[in-house]
Amino acid sequence: QVQLAESGGGLVQAGGSLRLSCAASAGTFRNYFMAWFRRAPGKEREFVARITRSGVTPYYYADSVKDRFTISRDNAKNAVYLQMNNLKPEDTAVYYCAASRLYYTDHDEHYDYWGQGTQVTVSS
Fold first, then answer.
1. Are residues 7 and 117 in contact, defined by beta-carbon separation less than 8 angstroms?
2. What's the rounded Cα separation, in Å, for the pair 123 and 109?
3. Tag placement on the chain: N or C end, fewer CB within 10 Å?
4. Are 9 and 18 in contact (CB under 8 A)?
5. Angle at 91 between CA 59 and CA 97, to 5 degrees
6. How far is CA 66 from each of CA 1, 11, 32, 47, 48, rounded to the nearest angstrom?
7. How far is CA 22 from CA 37, 63, 88, 116, 124, in A?
8. Beta 118-123 vs 93-100: how paired, if at all?
9. CA-to-CA distance for 95 and 52, rounded, in angstroms?
10. Residue range 44-64, pLDDT digits in tens
11. Residue 97 and residue 34: Cα distance in Å, rounded?
């Protein structure tokens, strides 16, 4: 069992930055592929970014966030991060971190554990 807790969301103006954090409870955190997803109002949950177990490349990003968002992890701290720069109003969503034991994928159905989410609101 892995418990995930996101933090770092908030209200920011367009063009601004936020850094989301996800703290994991498990001592075996390094065994999990990690990802960020988001759900905008009235839309389905969508993939944002993912990172390998060790944190080495390749990383993958949704086209909509490429070159603006950066995913990273610190296995010593059992944490994964999402640095979000040049935020746009369309980035407004609840952001979730997720952990997968077996799959390195964009597909949310393969993720075993989810956090409760953190709200990001970008004003224009």
1. no
2. 31
3. N
4. yes
5. 50
6. 31, 21, 23, 12, 9
7. 12, 22, 22, 10, 26
8. antiparallel
9. 19
10. 999 999 999 999 988 999 999
11. 7
Q: What is the mean pLDDT of residues 18-47?
A: 95
Residue pair 114/25 in contact by the 8 Å Cβ criterion? no
First to last CA, the chain: 40
Calpha distance 115→124 (Å, rounded): 28
> Which residue is listed with tokens 């908030």?
10
Three-state DSSP state, 102: coil
**Three-state SS annotation for 43-85:** CCEEEEEEECCCCCCCCEECCCCCCCEEEEEECCCCEEEEEEC
> Who contacts 17 (Cβ-Cβ below 8 Å, separation ≥6)?
83, 84, 85, 86, 87
Q: Is the pLDDT of residue 27 over 90?
A: no
